[in-house]
Amino acid sequence: MDDLRDETGGIPAGEMSGHGLGETILFVDDEVYLAEVGKEMLEDYGYHVESMTSSIDALEAFVQTPDKFDLVITDYTMPGMMGNLLAEKIQGIRPEIPIIMCTGIPLDPQITEELRLAKILLKPLDMEGFLQLVRKVLDHPLSRQPGVSVDKGSNPLDGLPGL
């Protein structure tokens, strides 16, 4: 029997749609319930998830171990530091890391035009579609743009309140 494969790293098509292959995701949402549900859902599907309710704490975790994460999923509206600033600072460290931004409000393109987001999702999220998108983004990460370099001389935590 032919073993049909999809884009999930050789898993038979239709068998594990949206399932993880052990990748690590940084999941950031200031709403505790959403952070917990997002973590549980992604872990149930085979991902390792570090869930944070503070964008500043999430940036600190990323700064400490930037190569640990395969994907960042962040809310847009958060106290302390908005999701677009978090994404900008993370991309300043690792320009190639894919970022999915979730929001409950339509965003002005001017807010996100300079970011290289894999996707902007409007809440509420459809679980099956969300899981398929996560798998697709991980299977086809953003290619690094020419001329983008990491400025290792600057501290991405500079200018944040309380730091």
Count of discrete structural domains: 1
- Average pLDDT rating: 80
- What would CATH call the architecture? 3-Layer(aba) Sandwich
Indicate the overall shape. Answer: globular
Can you count the helices? 5
| Strand element count | 5
Structural class: alpha/beta
Rg over CA atoms: 16 Å
* The CATH top-level class label: Alpha Beta
Helix content percent band: 25-40%
Terminal CA distance reads 59 Å
Q: Tell me the strand percentage band.
A: 5-15%
**What is the chain-wise order of helices and strands?**
EHEHEHEHEH
Q: Provide the CATH topology.
A: Rossmann fold
CATH H level: which superfamily? Response regulator
Uncertain spans: 1-16, 143-163
- Largest sheet properties: 5 strands, parallel
Give me the side-by-side strand order of the main sheet: 2-1-3-4-5
Summarize the structure.
The chain is α/β, with parallel strands linked by helices and 163 residues long. It has five helices and five strands.
Could you please describe the fold and organization of this structure?
The protein is α/β, with parallel strands linked by helices and 163 residues long. The chain has a single domain (24-139), classed as Rossmann fold (3-Layer(aba) Sandwich). 31% of the residues lie in helices and 15% in strands. The chain contains 5 helices and 5 strands, in the order E-H-E-H-E-H-E-H-E-H. It has a 5-stranded parallel sheet with strand order 2-1-3-4-5, sandwiched between helices. Strand 4 (99-103), helix 4 and strand 5 (119-122) form a beta-alpha-beta unit. The longest helix has 13 residues, at 32-44. The radius of gyration is 16 Å and the shape is globular.
